[in-house]
Amino acid sequence: MDAPARAPLTPLALTMGDPAGIGPEIALLAWRDRQRRALPPFAVYADLDLMRDRAALIAAPVPIEPVPNAKTGASCFTEALPVVAIPLARPARPGVPDAENAGATLLSIRRAVADVAADKAAAVVTNPIAKSVLYQAGFSHPGHTEFLGALAREYWPGEAAEPVMMLAGPDLRVVPVTIHVALKEVPGLLTTVRIMATARIVANALKRDFGIEAPRLAVSGLNPHAGEDGALGTEDQEVVRPAVEALRAEGFDIRGPLSADTMFHAAARKTYDAAIAMYHDQALIPIKTLAFDEGVNITLGLPFVRTSPDHGTAFAIAGRGVASPASLEAALKLAAEMSARRLGATAP
Question: CA 208 to CA 250: how far, in whole Å?
Fold first, then answer.
């Protein structure tokens, strides 16, 4: 008997990010690369004049087609970049962030998530935001990840929404247990329960979204040399190790706590499918060293797929036509692959 036909993937919803940053121009460059890089169809949720002006500024002539949502943009994607209009409060200047436009930045994200909830987009891909600019406008979340978790609970009431940040590149996937907090706060936030919850979400995502049937996890210690048997801190013995042992008793293929300084060389990376680190820089330094131009930020634990380029707004080079779309293109391709696995669709 023939296998059932797989439906084509609905286009992705790409947010504009901070309009003064490089998000708008790398979206334009990604569309220009669509055939050469075999990119999935996407629509940008952004101000129409912003996209036209930025295309002219960086000498990237890209036709713009207004559309009501990502799904309706499928028919025009080969000929024009579909744009869902999200008006700015006032024109954006490259490299000059403006808190007056924070509302449009957040609305772009909200509309993209709402369209996924309404089956008008397959996944959300977010361009970089500047949290300091959003804070000036009253933004109450520590970052993108936490805001997306709140939107998930709003649009998918009753479904689990425990956002976990993963950074992924060609040779490494890594997850920090604590994210956007001061280093001095990390020991107090780490608990055995929190580490176990993070590991479960990671293992489930590796199965569902990455097609890894038997995920292997490696867990770092908090302290140098994973505490050196208590000589350099007791958290690894009292908090991290009990989490690893309990998960192993549940049947997880998991090791740790491991010394973080020996976890990320080539031979070590071959022994696991994802590394779980205790804090932000412990996770992000290795991935950005190995795959700065290809790294992808993924939010696990949500009822929808979300990816993002693994870099910031790059205000210093915005509007100069030198920004690389490579990380965004990797994020678009990964979002399409993850969505296809979830939905039983055919990724481009």
Answer: 19
